[in-house]
Design brief:
This protein has a domain of 141 residues: P-loop containing nucleotide triphosphate hydrolases (Rossmann fold), CATH 3.40.50.300. The radius of gyration is 17 Å and the shape is globular. Helix content is 44%, strand content 20%. The chain is an alpha/beta fold. It has 8 helices and 9 strands. The structure holds guanosine-5'-monophosphate. The site of guanosine-5'-monophosphate (5GP) has 13 residues, from strand 5, strand 6 and helix 4.
Length: 210
Amino acid sequence: MPASNDGVMVILSSPSGAGKTTLVNLISEKENFKISISHTTRQPRVNEIPDKDYFFVNDDEFKRLIKNQEFLEYAKVFNNYYGTTRTPVIEKLSKGQNVLFDIDWQGADQIKNKNLDYKLITFFILPPSKKILFQRLSNRDMKDKLIVEERMKQFERDVLHWINYDYVVINDNLQDCYRRIQSLINAEINNGSKDYDLEYIRKHVEKLTT
Ligand code: 5GP
């Protein structure tokens, strides 16, 4: 059983282009949340700050961390390795800080299966439509048509994992989406009533996958 003064873990996952990173930043600004900084073997993007956005490491260092069993979870995503080290997460939770994870479905599954002694709330963020996802991906740093097509194909596979999350939230409008997540987190922490329509989500997923 989690102790009442322990922090909670909140995972946000989504297919690429659903706006998850912006949501993670919004939540961490306004709530008592610390973002878990992942390790990755991918190259930094121009706007990224090492040790803030990610700990950028090479393959050998990543393998060393695996061997030393330092990861709470790790996975290969788009040909690179990503992982969350255990110690900083547990330190924060035991100090009463909430921890926010921006990780994919593989990592979310692994953390769920660990059944840690901390409350865990998982969210899967979806785009309002495939058309809007396509537009968002095309407007991003990835002007390359092939990359956009690859991400659209990946979307078809990733979306199937919605079923393993506590809540699925549609990012039609950033502020609305943020407020829905915030209210669900508050309801979970305070055992309040939850405004959540699973049937609506099921129909939305059906639309996205047909
Ligand atoms: P990006 O390279 O665009 O920053 O991230 C690619 C994907 O990797 C995103 O879906 C992101 O959520 C996921 N990711 C980032 N860090 C981790 C991590 O530590 N573990 C796992 N499993 N996925 C991660």
